[in-house]
Amino acid sequence: MANRNSFLQPRPFLLLTLSLIIIAIAAASVDGSDDGAFSRPPARNVLITPHARAESEPQQVHVSLAGKDHVRVTWITDDKHVSSVVEYGTTEAGPAGKYEATASGEHTKYRYFLYASGTIHHVRIGPLKPNTVYFYRCGGIGPEFSFKTPPATLPIEFAVVGDLGQTEWTQSTLQHINGSDYDVFLLPGDLSYADSQQPLWDSFGRLVEPYASRRPWMVTEGNHEVESFPIIFPHGFKAYNARWLMPHTESGSSSNLYYSFDVASGLVHVIMLGSYTDFDSHSDQYTWLAADLAKIDRKATPWVVVLLHAPWYNTNEAHQGEGESMRSEMEELLYDNRVDVVFAGHVHAYERFTRVYDNKADPCGPVHVTIGDGGNREGLALRFKKEAVSAPLSLYREPSFGHGRLRIVDEKRAHWSWHRNNDSSSVVADEVWFNSLSASEECWPRKGGNVDGGGGLSARVGLDEL
Question: Which residues form the Purple acid phosphatase C-terminal domain (predicted)?
Answer without folding.
Answer: 365-428
